[in-house]
Design goal:
Isoleucyl-tRNA Synthetase, domain 2; single chain; 958 residues; Rossmann fold; four-stranded parallel beta sheet; 28 helices; globular
């Protein structure tokens, strides 16, 4: 008789099989839905429960926003979802008010591309994908408050996304107060003369356009000419993370070019220090904090100004002490000064005598030709490729700068290893102290001057270590002999005294490019007036809804046409773009923005809408926000920034999504819209499900489920194939779906297996054949409560032994701790151990003691809620166990009555002795020496020393 997954062979009528599991699961899922079992009450608004006392002990658990792909879920996707569900269920059973729901990050390029291919509206595709996704996650029994579910594509949702955009647009950052303030307060300061205008004229003397231009320069959202990743083959700009290492789009594999375009930018750099410093207040994995710190990249150094032909190149350097070793300069190819400084003809060399080195010209006849050719080459590379490329290339632009410390004329190059997005887009090249500069200088025959005495062994390479300064003296400054830090202080003081520069702080963080030339995204709540100035729409004009268009695709171009210009799909909706509006000063013609917001926009604030999804007056009620996200009271003794209590998702979102969300939340905090300074108090990164994949002799992947193993070798349709190991996915043809697992074993088995595979934050291998182990565990537990032959409950009020209670209460204590710390694999192991104990002691008996069966069922409930509900109900409890109780351990059974001590003799374990737990050192010593084996080894001799480590061991030294 088989206990297999499908239960297709002859089996007792009431055995727990996949078919029985399916019936149970559907029944309880319907019950939970009908009874609103997972509804979390709010303090205020439509989700408040009138007359019901609101628990002060709340818990807000959130999964990272999933995108509703049309291909649905594979078993790797719900790993984190099940983990948060187990965590939420446990805390709900202990009496906490738990908010747990799920929405969908539903704007984005895939739906738009599908629409362009099929002519189906993206909303139709997206909503069908969401329904498919919901069917799958509902089958898993996830305990979500369905009332709170949202999608970023819901018009009522993106109405508030647009509203938040306007709050940011209508704000500026006050450096003195270190916070955002309404832009109206800035305008008032100009009008009252508290703040001077750039040219010193009175505010009243400026035209309205001039006033607007000044104000717009301060906004937290502004329009700027910025370098972007332009993919002509896609017809749109793509984000950095959407560009492969070889400079191509990850969708379509088209060439990507760096191109300057007028784009919306968000001034996230104003928050750099707060985003960096507040990481110390967050309960996040240290690796994620490190990634954010590196991305923000705060560096202390100096700005140095180099004169060039009547103009100035400003560089930021963290090593101003090496300035005497600067032998050439490099500008990013996109640097705005390149066009102004590029000479018409090749000049003589720095000494004014010899012709310019041919290696510097790139074979071009003029500097302008060399620069144009090089820029075209550089535009085809991603920023990552430019940074990591080992071969350094560049061309001379025909201009020489003057090193301010020694008046040396040094050539100016452009090179792609310098990025416009970091520092000033220009560097002073010190090849003696920087390996990239060394490689470049060696290739192009440039001078190398060391400014730090190198250690031995650095004859043929740059030296980046510590040492005294050398070769660093002019008429009124000598750094020679100083250590690096002292040399930095001295050179900064000299630069400031001679007005050649100043000490400063720089950041790698760049302002956020906040526009896409796509259709399927949030429209901007902005119109442009006759002067081309952006005008914020009043609240009563929100939402600005996406119009229907005949063609959803942006205009695409020859993939290699770097000079092409974006033509967004919305530009085709001319009746929508050109609009007459009355914005308070009579009807006027305006032009709408034809870009849309990036997909990141909707996921920046969704935790706030989960709190209050039905509020039509506000994006969130302040009372509800304070309850769910507000800082913990001061009596907790922590500098708590607030935020939700647990946020679970993949480490791949460690930087951008989390950084953007934190930025938006901090602006909302500054403006008084929220009480919490941070959106996510605690972060947890789950691992990944990995699986074997198989390739044939051509190197093509074959379906993993069709592969057979024979004597350690693998075959597909009779042909031997090669096994490899990788992340589960469509491309590797190794997908296993949760639907398949639920059908063959039951959702509870699938849940238990995923949680038992290993620590939640570790990646782990998937093995379908191992799922049966989890199924058999549930079958054994089922048999302890239900008679397989009759279906009757086989539980009685039998008195337990002390050993029974000790085993039970230690399990309760351990499982509670494991659930609270997200150690679900060890919680599962403890439940299996207790189940095995009860089966061994009572499995053959007529009945299982109720005192064992009920706690076992309750402890199982967070991981396997359906079967636990069914057994709890059959045990005579009419109410659902969703809200508990959860077993509490009896402390008296957690204390050991005896302790076993291993006895070492000269470092080797020779015997063991059991003594009372409260025994003192003298009693333990006496018991160890009285042991027969130890006495025989001592042979009547007195040991030289006996060391007793309480509760651990006895060490006897002969």
């Amino acid at each position: 008789m088989t206990e297999g997954a499908a239960g297709t062979e002859t089996a007792p009528a009431h055995r727990y099989t996949a078919a029985v599991a399916g019936q149970i699961e559907r029944r309880w899922q319907d019950y939970w839905a009908d009874h609103g079992s997972y509804r979390a009450p709010n303090p205020a608004g439509t989700l408040a429960e009138e007359g019901a006392p609101l628990p002060s002990d709340k818990l807000f658990v959130q999964d990272m926003f999933p995108y509703p792909s049309g291909t649905g879920l594979h078993v790797g996707h719900p790993l984190g979802f099940i983990g948060t569900d187990v965590y939420a269920r446990y805390h709900r059973m202990t009496g906490r008010n738990v908010l747990h729901t799920m929405g969908f990050d539903a704007f984005g390029l895939p739906a738009e591309q599908y629409a362009a291919q099929t002519g189906t509206h993206p909303r139709t595709t997206t909503e069908a994908n969401i329904e498919r996704y919901l069917q799958q996650i509902r089958r898993l029994g996830l305990g979500h408050d369905e009332r709170r579910r949202i999608a970023t594509t819901d018009v009522e949702y993106y109405r508030w996304t647009q509203w938040i955009f306007l709050q940011i647009f209508n704000s500026y950052y006050d450096e003195e107060q270190d916070r955002a303030r309404p832009i109206g307060e800035l305008e008032k300061e100009y009008a009252e003369g508290v703040r001077a205008t750039p040219d010193g004229r009175a505010w009243s003397e400026l035209s309205r356009v001039e006033q607007r231009e000044i104000i717009d320069e301060h906004r937290l959202v502004y329009i700027s000419e910025a370098p972007v990743n332009w993919a002509p083959g896609l017809g749109t700009v793509v984000a950095n993370e959407e560009v492969t290492a070889d400079g191509r789009s990850d969708r379509g594999n088209f060439p990507v070019f760096r191109k300057n375009l007028r784009q919306w930018m968000m001034r996230i750099t104003s928050y750099a220090d707060r985003l960096l410093d507040d990481l110390d207040r967050l309960d996040w994995p240290e690796k994620v904090k490190t990634m954010q710190r590196n991305w923000i990249g705060r560096s202390r150094g100096a700005n140095v100004r180099f004169p060039v032909d009547g103009k100035t190149i400003e560089v930021f350097t963290t090593r101003p002490d090496t300035l005497f070793g600067a032998t050439y300069m490099v500008l990013a190819p996109e640097h705005p000064l390149v066009d102004e400084l590029t000479a018409e003809e090749w000049p003589a060399s720095a000494d004014g005598q010899t012709a310019v080195d041919e290696r510097w010209t790139g074979g071009a006849t003029t500097p302008a030709e060399a620069v144009a050719d090089y820029r075209r080459q550089a535009s085809r590379k991603s920023e990552l490729d430019r940074q990591e490329s080992k071969e350094k290339t560049g061309v001379f632009i025909g201009a020489y700068a003057v090193n301010p410390v020694n008046d040396a004329r040094i050539p100016v190059f452009i090179a792609d290893y310098v990025l416009m997005g970091y520092g000033t887009g220009a560097i002073m090249a010190v090849p003696g102290q920087d390996q990239r500069d060394w490689d470049f200088a060696t290739k192009y025959g440039l001078d190398i001057i060391r400014t730090v005495q190198p250690a031995e062994g650095f004859e043929g390479e740059a030296y980046t270590g510590d040492g005294p300064a050398i070769n660093s003296t002019n008429a009124d400054l000598s750094l020679d002999g100083l250590g690096i830090e002292d040399a930095k202080k001295a050179i900064v003081a000299w630069l400031e005294e001679h007005r050649h520069g100043e000490g400063t702080v720089q950041y790698k963080l760049r302002d956020w490019l906040f526009a896409r030339q796509r259709y399927w995204g949030e429209p901007f709540p902005i119109v442009y007036d006759e002067n081309g100035l952006p005008i914020a729409l009043p609240e009563e004009h929100l939402p600005v809804e996406l119009p229907d268009v005949a063609d959803y695709a942006p205009t695409t171009f020859d993939p290699d046409d770097a000079d092409s210009e974006p033509q967004p799909p919305l530009a085709k909706a001319t009746d929508w773009v050109e609009v007459t509006l009355d914005l308070g000063d009579g009807p006027k013609k305006y032009r709408r923005d034809t870009n849309v917001m990036p997909q990141w926009a909707g996921s920046c604030w969704y935790q706030l809408r989960y709190i209050d999804p039905d509020n039509h007056e506000r994006f969130v009620d302040p009372e509800n926000e304070r309850y769910w996200l507000g800082p913990r009271p001061a009596e907790h003794g922590v500098n708590d920034p607030g935020g939700l209590d647990l946020y679970v998702g993949g480490v791949e979102h460690a930087v951008l999504h989390l950084l953007y969300s934190r930025f938006w939340h901090k602006v909302l905090y500054d403006l008084g819209h929220v009480s919490s300074e941070e959106p996510y108090r605690r972060l947890y990164n789950q691992g990944y499900i990995q699986a074997f994949a198989y390739t044939d002799s051509r190197g093509f992947y074959v379906p993993a489920e069709e592969v057979e193993e024979k004597d350690g070798r693998f075959f597909h349709n009779g042909e031997e194939v090669k096994q490899e190991y990788g992340k589960m996915g469509k491309s590797l043809k190794n997908v296993v779906t949760p639907d398949e697992m639920s059908r063959n074993y039951g959702a509870d088995t699938f849940r238990f297996y995923e949680m038992s595979m290993g620590p939640l934050d570790d990646s782990r291998p998937w093995a379908t054949k191992d799922v049966v182990g989890s199924h058999r565990f549930l079958q054994r537990l089922w048999r302890l409560v239900v008679d397989e032959e009759t279906g009757e409950v086989r539980v009685a009020d039998t008195e337990l032994t002390d050993d029974d209670r000790r085993q039970l209460h230690r399990t309760i204590a351990g499982v509670r701790e494991d659930y609270a710390e997200l150690r679900f694999n060890t919680a599962g192991a403890k439940l299996i151990e207790l189940n095995n104990y009860v089966t061994k002691v009572y499995g053959a008996a007529a009945a299982t003691p109720r005192e064992l069966a009920e706690p076992l069922v309750l402890m199982l409930a967070p991981m396997c809620p359906h079967v636990a509900e069914e057994l709890w109900n059959r045990l005579g409890h009419p109410d659902s166990l969703v809200h508990g109780p959860f077993p509490v351990p009896d402390e008296q059974y957690l204390v050991d009555e005896t302790v076993e001590y291993p006895i070492q003799v000269n470092g080797k374990v020779r015997s063991r002795v059991t003594v009372a737990a409260e025994a003192g050192k003298d009693e333990v010593r006496a018991a160890a020496l009285a042991d027969e084996k130890i006495a025989a080894l001592l042979d009547g001799a007195e040991p030289r020393k006996v060391i007793v480590v309480p509760g651990r061991l006895v060490n006897v030294v002969r």
